[in-house]
Amino acid sequence: MNAESDEKRPAAADGTDEPEKPLGSRAPHFVKRSRTLHLSWQVGVFVVGLAVVAAGIVMLPLPGPGWLVIFGGMAIWATEFVWAQLVLRWTKRKVTEAAHRALDPKVRRRNITLTVIGLVIVAALVGVYVAKYGIEMPWKVSR
Fold it and tell me: pTM of whole model > 0.85?
């Protein structure tokens, strides 16, 4: 790519100097030439992306990297579908904004303070429960 084409591309919305990729299909050129082949390609990409997203949804309540797998499925869809590319751009922008907010010293101090207060309250409640009812191990069953 030359300097002229870089100037015409929009800058990334997250504030970096890296230009955003153009929206649209990233299918190989020989696939795009044939309408039938391109439609088949899109159906295949959709099915594979759907399987990955479904696996991620199953992993949400079960052990496993659920959200990571869901975003992986969205990335698969984004190779072919504009709506998925827009969703991923929006998600990346929101995650970047949240990371910048979380690194703000005032916000970090507030979050740490609230976490410590919450842990002290939970520890106090557990202490009251243990003092009132005691601890009975599950393997010591009385008959």
Answer: no
Encode the chain in three state secondary structure.
CCHHHHHHCCECCCCCCCECCCCCCCCCHHHHHCHHHHHHHHHHHHHHHHHHHHHHHHHCCCCCCHHHHHHHHHHHHHCCCHHHHHHHHHHHHHHHHHHHHHCCHHHHHHHHHHHHHHHHHHHHHHHHHHHHHCCCCCCCCCC
- Cα of first residue to Cα of last residue in the chain, in angstroms, is 80
Dist CA 103 CA 91 (whole Å): 18
pLDDT digits (tens, 9 = 90+) for 4-21: 444 454 555 545 555 667
* Cα separation, 91 vs 73, whole angstroms: 14
Mean pLDDT of 103-111: 86
Reported as half-sphere exposure (CB side, CA atoms, 13 A), residue 83 has a value of: 1
